[in-house]
Automatic annotation (TrEMBL), chain A:
Record bears the keyword Endoplasmic reticulum: yes
The protein, known as: Trafficking protein particle complex subunit
Lineage of producing organism: Eukaryota, Fungi, Dikarya, Ascomycota, Pezizomycotina
Main location (coarse class): endoplasmic reticulum
Subcellular compartments: Endoplasmic reticulum; Golgi apparatus, cis-Golgi network
Gene3D superfamilies per UniProt: Trafficking protein particle complex subunit 3 (3.30.1380.20)
InterPro entries cross-referenced by the UniProt entry: NO_sig/Golgi_transp_ligand-bd, TRAPP-I_su5, TRAPP_component
Domain of life: Eukaryota
Organism: Apiospora marii
Functional summary from the UniProt entry: Plays a key role in the late stages of endoplasmic reticulum to Golgi traffic.
Keyword list, A-Z: Endoplasmic reticulum, ER-Golgi transport, Golgi apparatus, Transport
Signal sequence coordinates: none
Residues covered by region (Disordered): 1-23, 183-202
UniProtKB/TrEMBL annotation, chain B:
Protein name, per record: Trafficking protein particle complex subunit
Chief localization: endoplasmic reticulum
Higher taxonomy: Eukaryota, Fungi, Dikarya, Ascomycota, Pezizomycotina
Similarity section: Belongs to the TRAPP small subunits family. TRAPPC4 subfamily.
Biased composition (Gly residues): 70-80
Region of interest (Disordered), ranges: 53-92
Length: 227, 171
């Protein structure tokens, strides 16, 4: 019956440990050094994620919702990690909308994409003071994605919107975050000449992340400003 | 008249045309059906060549075993050195005419790239590699592209256009 006993060190299906026994949980949390991943492997992984999310969907909104749901837990967890990596005196969670958005624009973006976001704006419409916009000229997730014409309102950066939403929710600023492509509309007036019209579209993949905070967040904000 | 890169065709492994684009103005266009026929014609050309090659190989081996039947029988196919089996021919690689030069490139997975350039164009290999790279990036990494189906990717079009324009203008 000796052949029935499991061989020592036999590979367990599904779980694999590195040979030195050090998993990701053994690494220190405060690595200042940035660790980079292959963009190609991320592109293939993300492509499969989009493929998975687009199974049996009824609408584009449905697909964006699913991508958003995939990103949300990442944001929740990243908030903790990013705050932990901050210098000790600024290690508090953001208390105002501006500091929160600044954290997203700087720390979160640098951690995820290796650079800060390209812009941060408040909605100019006085009727909607709860809306803020984070702008990325060329989202890394959309680098290799061409959206078919029949799905033109889709933006796969909805996944990143989910991450932002997770960070906002985690720091007690509940919000709805959606991703919108604005490259085409903005470039249209610029493309006046016949030749090279396409080349003039500086940022065809320009994406705006619309952050819409819940009313209670603004209520608290105004209360804090007075006091 | 110098034109540089004139056209690019991509043919899938079944011989169907999945991408077709011409660069530069003033070219007479084929109608789309003619393109499909052209692509379908180019593909079997390669298959025929390979089939012909294998038929030749088998004939040669047959001759060998007939003349040296004792060695083959006693060795049982193990003792003697294995018959060398070189790579099959890759099919049509280059075709030069008075007006253009056709460069072919077959990927490992059977996709075929055809690049039409003018006869004076240098470094076609480099251009071909770059086109393949763009294809691998902007077509294969696109979640909405279905394998073996016609390529309709805006990003691929855009990047290809700017790359080809760059080579054509640098001449």
């Amino acid at each position: 019956m000796s052949n029935m006993t499991p061989v020592k060190g036999k590979e367990q299906p599904g779980l694999r440990y590195p040979s030195n026994g050090k998993t990701i949980y053994h690494r220190p949390l405060n690595r200042a050094k940035t660790s980079e991943l292959s963009q190609a492997s991320f592109a293939y992984l993300f492509s499969e994620m989009v493929g998975y999310a687009s199974k049996r969907i009824v609408s584009i909104q449905d697909l964006e919702k699913r991508l958003n749901t995939q990103g949300h837990p990442i944001g929740l967890k990243l908030l903790d990690l990013l705050l932990h990596r901050e210098p000790a005196r600024t290690q508090t969670r953001p208390l105002t909308i501006i500091t929160l958005l600044h954290l997203i624009k700087q720390q979160l973006w640098t951690h995820l994409f290796g650079r800060a976001a390209d812009g941060l704006e408040k909605s100019s419409d006085p009727a909607r003071p709860d809306e803020y916009m984070i702008i990325d000229n060329e989202p890394l997730v959309n680098r290799y994605i061409s959206v078919p014409r029949d799905m033109s309102q889709l933006n796969c950066a909805a996944f990143v919107a989910g991450i932002i939403e997770g960070v906002c929710d985690g720091s007690a600023f509940p919000a709805r975050v959606t991703a919108h492509s604005v490259g085409k509309q903005q470039a249209a007036p610029a493309a006046d000449g016949e030749e090279g019209g396409e080349g003039k579209e500086m940022w065809p993949g320009r994406t705006v992340f619309l952050v819409k905070f819940q009313p209670e967040v603004l209520e608290r904000e105004s209360f804090l400003a007075k006091g | 008249m110098s034109r540089g890169v004139i056209a690019l065709l991509i043919i899938n492994k079944a011989g169907g045309l999945i991408y077709n684009r011409t660069f530069g103005e003033g070219l007479n266009q084929l109608n789309s059906n003619d393109y499909l026929v052209l692509a379908a014609r180019l593909n079997p050309l390669r298959e025929h060549q390979a089939a012909h090659y294998y038929a030749q190989q088998q004939q040669q081996q047959h001759h060998h075993s007939a003349s040296g039947s004792i060695g083959a029988g006693s060795g049982g196919g193990q003792g003697g050195p294995l018959p060398s089996r070189p790579e099959p021919p890759s099919g049509l690689e280059v075709m030069e005419t008075e007006n253009f030069r056709l460069q072919c490139f077959n990927t490992q997975t059977g996709t075929k790239f055809l690049l039409f350039t003018d006869t004076m164009q240098a470094n076609v290999d480099v251009a071909m590699r770059k086109v393949y790279e763009l294809y691998a990036d902007y077509v294969m990494k696109n979640p909405f592209y279905q394998l073996e189906m016609p390529v309709r990717c805006d990003m691929f079009d855009r990047k290809l256009n700017s790359y080809i324009r760059e080579i054509n203008n640098s001449r």
